[in-house]
């Protein structure tokens, strides 16, 4: 059906053997690796692997007071028991109602 120059690849596709040989010899260009400056550069040429260590060790370490993590006044109740959250909502409403009555003089203590 076909001459020896063609080979079957991926089912019913037919590819010329000369094209496969040319693709094997292909060297990638810089445009095919946009994240690299040079296609042949290796990871040993980066600053983290030796050059930056000398700079860091020569500088004195500035130590100040340890900072505590930021906290908010009212932490989120997400993840708590849903039954507790429902009851808490109604309890807050009752507390506000009692404080309002104390303010208006209808109650002597909250």
From TrEMBL:
One Pfam family linked to the record: Ribosomal_L29e
Biased composition (Polar residues): 40-51
Family: Belongs to the eukaryotic ribosomal protein eL29 family.
BP terms from Gene Ontology: translation
Annotated InterPro entries: Ribosomal_eL29
Bias (Basic and acidic residues) ranges: 98-110
Organism: Venturia inaequalis (Apple scab fungus)
Coiled-coil regions listed: none
Gene Ontology terms for molecular function: structural constituent of ribosome
GO cellular component: ribonucleoprotein complex; ribosome
Entry's transmembrane regions: none
Region span, Disordered: 31-110
Name of the protein this chain belongs to: 60S ribosomal protein L29
Record flagged with keyword Signal: no
The entry's keywords: Ribonucleoprotein, Ribosomal protein
